[in-house]
Design a protein that fits this description.
The structure is a homodimer of 197-residue chains.
Chain A: H1 2-24, H2 31-38, H3 52-76, H4 81-98, H5 100-108, H6 115-141, H7 151-168, H8 177-192
The structure holds a DNA duplex (30 and 30 nucleotides).
DNA sequence: GTTTTTAACTAACATCTGTTAGCCGTATTA
DNA sequence: TAATACGGCTAACAGATGTTAGTTAAAAAC
């Protein structure tokens, strides 16, 4: 149970760091800034974390794991491509909505990961994207979507929309995350779907 | 005429800075890094620019001006809302394609502008977005688009897609910028357009 | 051919950076 | 009650940061 308390305080540090990184960016955030937000001295942070980058790593890879998990659940389902896409979008947005701050860091600050960690992160990311791409391709092959679609453009458009949400979405507003996922997928899918002219 | 040469060298500095800021981010880019890219000493940079932030300012505000100009040309035209949207999208992408590096900086690094400059920038930006929003609203009012659209979501989706382009678009690839704008607007507009069921 | 401009240099500044070492009070555990 | 771990502290480091001052060689303008 010491471990629990330890984690609890450590996660408090990480959460504050996430807020800071989101506001000012990773590189512009100093350990002294972070310490001040917590009301302690900079050196005291190192009782809880090993380095500044360790914080970024845990933020990025924890989010990546949640995104992955969410998509895996969707892939198991035996439904049409457009339905899979819809569920994938809603899942992604739900994961983001659970921690918008970490999501913003995940997507804006990951490039400050060093060397092999950055590499690993990018591999996870491209894998995730490719699995969405596969869903779209499945839809074009079985006739759900238009045949002359540029898959890369489509999937990048989808991802752009998803990834910028933390920048403008207000979780206290009138529109909740499932609703927003629903509308977004409607908007994109109906743009992709072959129309019965 | 001295001014011309001066500008020419100054712009060389700014261009290199744009590349650096894009790769590493503004905060993580040092003046010594920049100097090294140019083969000179850090202090020598100050013969050409007043400060690090001045570089960022000129990058951000120059791009903002070009976006604005492009949209103004479109607004003058007397065409349908969906056509205006199409032209606006193509215009935006064309401006970006003319300088993808500066575009990436414009959109990822503007937050490091200080105080009043950041404020001015954000005002320009929201104005630009609102003018796109107005086009979409025009379309919903005159029956071109579905009535039950969430305008904010739509315009944010559009912007996300546009703004992330510099991250993945390869200008040497097979698909040119007008083509991409065409496809993107097709994808979005046909998602918005009322469908003759 | 003298003056001016351009574009670079060296040296140095004050401050900020991430991080380590070693110490100490308080609360939990044995 | 003694031992341990938690969470903080101060002091300090070695290096990086943006920027200024003053200088100088070469090129352009007069």
């Amino acid at each position: 149970m010491e471990a629990v308390m330890n984690l609890s305080r450590k996660e408090q540090v990480i959460r504050m760091a996430a807020e800071l990184f989101r506001e000012k960016g990773y590189a512009a955030s100093s350990m002294r800034d972070l310490a001040q937000k917590l009301g302690i001295e900079a050196a005291s942070l190192y009782s809880h974390i090993k380095s500044k980058e360790e914080i970024l790593r845990s933020l990025c890879f924890d989010m990546a794991a949640e995104f992955r998990k969410s998509l895996e659940d969707v892939e198991k389902q035996n439904v049409s491509a457009s339905e899979k896409l819809r569920l994938g979008i809603i899942g992604h947005i739900s994961v983001m909505a659970k921690d918008l701050t970490a999501s913003a860091v995940f997507m804006n600050e990951h490039r400050h990961l060093s060397g092999p960690f950055l590499r690993d992160f990018l591999l996870l990311r491209i894998n995730y994207i490719n699995r969405f791409k596969a869903i779209i391709e499945e839809g074009t092959k079985n006739g759900e979507f238009k045949e002359n679609i540029d898959t890369k453009l489509s999937v990048m458009t989808l991802f752009s929309s998803l990834n910028w949400m933390p920048q403008w979405y207000n979780p206290d507003g009138k529109i909740d995350s499932v609703n927003i996922g629903q509308q977004l997928s409607d908007m994109l899918v109906n743009g992709l779907k072959k129309q019965k002219a």
